[in-house]
Amino acid sequence: MGRRRAFDEDEVVRTAVGLFGGRAFDGVSVDDLVTHLGVHRNSLYKTFGSKRGLYLAALRRHIADDVRPLAEALAVAPDAATALRLVTSADLGLLLLATVDRAPADEEVATEVSAALAALDQAIADALDISTALAGGLTAAALGILLRGNPEGVDAALTQRFDSSD
């Protein structure tokens, strides 16, 4: 009979979301994972198969815990400014890094990322009664704002623009 697992798999995956969301896949070593997750290397491999296996589990958790709730909130956004604010205030670090870092080289990551982005596009399209192509442009703009690192400045500009036009 094997030993009982000495760690909480859900907690490990949640912590891995933060690690992979803060650095690119290649920027997180197995030693980093072992140190930050408090999991022995052998346990990590036994549970997730590989660093990539843990990465995929973390990406899927991020999508379930962060992206899906965002899509639900976007689906009832009353206007484009609110939709932009929702996206730019969300913690989407892992989705952004997965999009630019792993998706081009990993088909499974690309599938997860594409589905997540499509869900955001569809939620915006439904809320604003616009085409998914136009909604995709809004999603891309919002994600670009996050990449540039100044969502507060954009939020302030949107607030000034839309509040002064009332």
Explain this structure:
The chain is mostly helical. 76% of the residues lie in helices and 0% in strands. It contains 9 helices and no strands. Helix 1 crosses helix 6, helix 5 runs antiparallel to helix 9 (151-164) and helix 6 crosses helix 7. The chain is elongated, with a radius of gyration of 18 Å. The chain starts with 8 loop residues before the first helix and ends with a helix. The model has no long low-confidence stretch (mean pLDDT 89).
Task: Summarize this entry quickly.
The protein has 9 helices and no strands. It has helices at residues 9-22, 30-37, 41-48, 51-74, 80-88, 93-102, 107-128, 132-148, 151-164.
List the helices and strands and how they pair.
Blueprint: H1 9-22, H2 30-37, H3 41-48, H4 51-74, H5 80-88, H6 93-102, H7 107-128, H8 132-148, H9 151-164
Helix pairs in contact: 1-4, 1-6, 3-4, 4-7, 5-8, 5-9, 6-7, 7-8
